[in-house]
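Hello Y.,

Per our agreement to keep a running log of every chain we model this quarter, I'm adding this entry. I've kept the format consistent with earlier entries: sequence first, then predicted structure.
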Amino acid sequence: MLTPNIRPGVKILIAGLMLFLFYWSVSAQNNTFSPYSRYGYGIISEPAFGGASGMGGIGYGLRSSGQINPMNPASYSAVDSLSFLFDFGLSAVYTRFRENNLREARLNSNIEYAAVKIPLSKDWGLSLGLYEYTRLGYAFSSSGSLTDLDGNSLIYSNAYSASGGINNAYLGTSVLFFKHLSLGVNINYKFGSLINKSVLSYPYNAEINPTSVSNVLVVNHFNIDAGLQYEQWFGYKHRLVLGVNYTPDGLMDVNYTTTTTTLDTLIQEHPGLSFGFPQNLGLGFSYTYDNRLTLGMDFQHQAWNKTSFFGVSDSLSLRTRLALGAEFLPLNIAQRYYQAIKYRMGLYYSDSYIKFAPGNLKELGLSVGLGLPLRNQRTALNLAMEYGKTLTPLPGMVQEHYWRVKLSLAFSETWFVKRRFN
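Predicted structure for the entry above:
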């Protein structure tokens, strides 16, 4: 008979995941130094897990029992009914900033996600996890002078900084119908804090107290997204998967406060302001030959231009993203280790949802990756390297070039085992 028998290693993984989720939920994030993160909700992160990060971040049409893919919850029904899948990812990014003749470089690292996928039956899967939705972080300063009523010159300094971000915890499930059609849904809980601070000081006049202002946006909100995948085999070697994901728009539950400190502290709440999230439509496909070559493409449409932010409905811009990706496995049954490695490549082009009068920011990137099998290919170490740059509408704006390395570990453990009785 088949009876659930969770191995000790899996118990440790589950406990570790729960501790990790708890730690991340109460810790502040500061995982970017982009000055553009001060606008909107910060820099948007793409939830491309595992090998997808080396394929340009595609996901709507990807479907595999060895991968967790929250970009399309319909993919959860691709399960090994005897195995439990766990995946977590880390990243490090080196960014170079340039503004006219000024240069600066920053290095930071981050825990990007953790997730599990559990088979409930042969064609029914469940996944839960946590990943970052947006990230916020910058630090810069300016100085100048002004003249007081007595005609004396006062030197002042303004220091600006920010930290935080919005995380997304999800619980999703998917069922395969008629051997071809898979339907899935995610229940998402978005939470986090966006903290923007400024300090005005007079470094050469101790008689004037500095003034600090802290604006804190706290987000706690539930929403859902739904996905569909249609899988069709042509013969024994050709497979096509079409994928769609849809998220309806809506308003978020937000608490916004301003704390001003000079001699005294004044806390001001701002009720009645509306903050929304956009309608999202994602389309994608993947073609696989002989389980060795996979080609895919994604297109994403996010209607931020119809979303309310600080009660204003036209302060953000339409965001689109186009991504292409490929994966190649030399042999299904390898005789040498390099023949069992999965080689990946991808590129992407996107518009930013941040709105400027001269035009939108755009982002262009190229990624390569390796899927390194461990322990008879039931465990994989995924390595991805990405180069990207921000394209600005005006040459005088801050230019960003970044090199990102992503590392993820996906491993599968037996969920059900056969017990023999004498």
